[in-house]
């Protein structure tokens, strides 16, 4: 169960009640045969492996099945401090990131992953989003994406860095914007778009989420994304 409240116009409080939930009892046997093998992409977040030891085993088991089948593995760190401290979460996130094709996170989240991966001559005290992405690349992550909110986003693929600015929009509620960003990026990737177009769609989806009071109600269709780039367009679609 999740309860979200607005203490003031500009602040949001979210309370989660996950202990004893069905998800916390997740087991590798719960993942049907063929589900992962027949998928084009498997997306995971850092929430599930922190729910319980069986949930963590399920995540790692699912990743292994995806790797064996050639299914793309995507991982959004999505750290929730109510589930685990940074010190406890870092090695868990690092283990998953090291086995993933795509890793998403904010700067603080990516720093946790880099910390969990351990230092090496090439991975030492990253101090910026670009440094963090390069540290992930050195650790074997082929596609790293840094979500930077109002500052846009960065992605590093095959040593090439791409960036996309954020949209300036009226913000009602930022909860869900990170998930919307990831959904936009992955949908663009599955559509075969290049990294710049992926970041642009991701930022547009994140912006739409911020303009809605709910977590998912502002999820846009492609025509809505196009309209965001046309500020003078009629706001009423007929």
Describe the structure.
By secondary structure, the protein is α/β, with parallel strands linked by helices. It has 2 domains: 30-147, 3-Layer(aba) Sandwich (UDP-N-acetylmuramoyl-L-alanine:D-glutamate ligase), CATH 3.40.1190; 166-238, no CATH class. The protein contains 7 helices and 8 strands. It has helices spanning 53-69, 86-97, 107-117, 129-138, 177-190, 195-210, 222-228, and strands spanning 2-8, 11-16, 41-45, 72-76, 102-105, 143-147, 153-157, 160-164. The chain has a 6-stranded mixed sheet, sandwiched between helices. The chain has a two-stranded antiparallel sheet with strand order 1-2. Helix 1 links the parallel strand 3 (41-45) and strand 4 (72-76). Helix 3 (107-117) packs parallel to helix 4 (129-138). Residues 119-124 have low confidence and may be disordered.
């Amino acid at each position: 169960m999740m309860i979200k409240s607005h203490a003031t116009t500009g602040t949001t409080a979210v309370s989660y009640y996950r202990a004893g939930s069905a998800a916390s009892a997740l087991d590798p046997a719960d993942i049907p045969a063929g589900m992962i093998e027949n998928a084009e992409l498997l997306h995971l977040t850092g929430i599930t492996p922190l729910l319980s030891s069986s949930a963590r085993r399920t995540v790692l088991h699912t990743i292994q099945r995806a790797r064996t089948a050639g299914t793309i593995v995507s991982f959004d760190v999505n750290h929730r401090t109510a589930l685990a401290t940074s010190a406890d979460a870092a090695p868990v996130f690092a283990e998953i990131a090291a086995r993933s094709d795509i890793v998403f996170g904010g700067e603080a989240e990516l720093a946790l992953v880099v910390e969990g991966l351990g230092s090496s001559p090439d991975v030492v005290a990253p101090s910026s989003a670009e440094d963090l992405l390069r540290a992930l690349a050195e650790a074997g992550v082929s596609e790293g994406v840094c979500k930077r909110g109002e500052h846009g986003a960065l992605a590093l693929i095959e040593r090439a860095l791409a960036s996309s600015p954020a949209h300036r929009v009226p913000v009602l509620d930022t909860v869900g914007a990170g998930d919307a960003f990831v959904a936009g990026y992955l949908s663009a990737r599955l559509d075969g778009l290049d990294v710049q177009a992926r970041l642009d769609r991701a930022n547009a989806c994140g912006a739409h989420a911020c303009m809605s009071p709910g977590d998912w109600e502002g999820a846009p269709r492609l025509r809505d994304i196009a309209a965001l780039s046309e500020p003078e367009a009629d706001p009423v679609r007929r």
